[in-house]
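Hello Y.,

Per our agreement to keep a running log of every chain we model this quarter, I'm adding this entry. I've kept the format consistent with earlier entries: sequence first, then predicted structure.
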Amino acid sequence: MNKLKMHSPDLTQANIDKLVELFPNCLTETRGADGEVKRSIDFDLLRQELSTSIVEGPQERYQLNWPGKREALLTANAPIAKTLRPCREESVDFDTTQNLFIEGDNLDALKLLQETYLNKVKLIYIDPPYNTGRDFIYDDDFSDDAESYLIQSNQADASGARLVANTDANGRFHSDWLSMIYARLKLARNLLRDDGVIFISIDDNEVDNLRKVCSEVFGEENFVAQIIWQKVFSPKNSARWFSEDHDYVLVYAKQGADWTPTALPKTDEMLARYKNLDNDPRGVWQSDNLTARNRYDAGLYSVTCPSGRVIDGPPKGSYWRFSEESFTRLNQENRIWWGEEGNNMPRLKRFLSEVQQGRTPQTLWFYKEVGHTQDAKKTLLKYVPFQETENVLNSVKPVELLQRILQLAGKPDDHSIILDFFSGSASTAHAVLKQNFEDGGNRRFIGVQIAEPLPKPEPRLGSIFEMGLTRVRNYGAEVRGQIDGAKADVGFRVLKIDSSNMKEVFYTPDAVTQDLLSDQVNNIREDRTAEDLLFQVLLDWGVDLALPITKETLAGKAVYFVDGNALAACFEEGVSEDFVKLLAKREPLRVVFRDAGFASDSVKINVEQIFKLMSPSTEVKCI
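Predicted structure for the entry above:
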């Protein structure tokens, strides 16, 4: 039942609506005194519309601007006191896999990955939430990043899950969406290699704005293509105007001069055009036109067919593409095809072995080649045991679409890192494993997904993140039985964003009390494990989070070794000089201890000297 408004009409908004009908270009968005973004009128532009001469106003310049843009840039650059905590129980092949799933807000994740994966990612693919006014859950708060703010303002539940939607009711349209994507793209660009590339799925609602944002972040000169993907196989008869049969995929390179797409394999239809009608030892070929319309005076001469028939010259208005001397040489080399009877207009033989083996990618992708949305849903249903069909995401992308992007982005065997920080149902991760399975590649993925609840509760799935894990876990189990398990990496290491492992030990002088002094001795949070500390060390040191990890016991103390001797970490207490000498004999590149873990102050002082004598190349640090 609809409720009565219980207030007088909002005449201002009514007047704005009337002006928009007359001057739609004067509609804009501004931030009011209450901090809310709302529709308003660009009065400078309205004055110009009502004037017969140029009116005074702000200096014109080419730019894309919106309320909140500066705050978005500020939040992209602001540091955070968070870390990544490993979760072995949800992982597959934790100690050996090179694939990563990260649960948490992707803005935090991108900040945490800045040092470790700076200039290391070959391909970024993202399918951000489309700005439909219904399902936009990313609502960054630039004035207070505390989790309590989100809960107090009803933007998150007690577990921290985001609840805010970018609905029409809150008056926010393009501005919030642009702020969200702008901050994340700024951080994402830093992670791309110089020969890296980003593909972004988007629809009509924001494609124009997204392209302008990407041109600002990546540079207009690095725009590669705006691909049209046919996402449905039949028209929607319920459409108000036109059936929306396509989405877009925007492509930007980190450095346009350093990236070119890998040629796609020739289709069976293309290969079928090559035959060997004369049993030429050079293999199959197809004939090509020998004439052109561009003026070429040396291309006017008569030719004689093997049958003896004389052809006076090329068709009227055209020219032979070769001089008479070159034509004679090609004929002697059996590169001219005169037809099976030797009496036809000559054509050039192009051998399959001599032409480009691949095909140039095009900007129009049909569903017959890269799948459609129904294919995507069927694949998701195959690997995720839903009880509620409403939980099948409408925006899920087909694995074949992602495989096409992987094929274009790089070579199978160059150990490419593929990043998707809107991982959703993990289509990208699925595509990486499937493409590696099909071409023997060694690509690896990093997927990031916020802990977003499913539309309806599921007994075995708590969130969209868990849905993605289930999908990839089940697909990996299927593949593992078909290939050499020793060579195939179908596992993943799960990491979750959390507060720092270190206690808050910074206080103003008047806030320090006697009972707080103990925190200065033991600065590690009580609920954190040694493996939690290890991953924060990896982040701080910029070490790859997917390197293999082994745990050994030396002199009764647990020591973690990362990638053999790349890093050794011991967070035990009571570390003695004898133990330090034993560890120094391993000559690790880096070693880290717990600051309060040494048996005495003298041991702490002597650690660096011991390593200088026994392993001078080792870098020593404490936490």
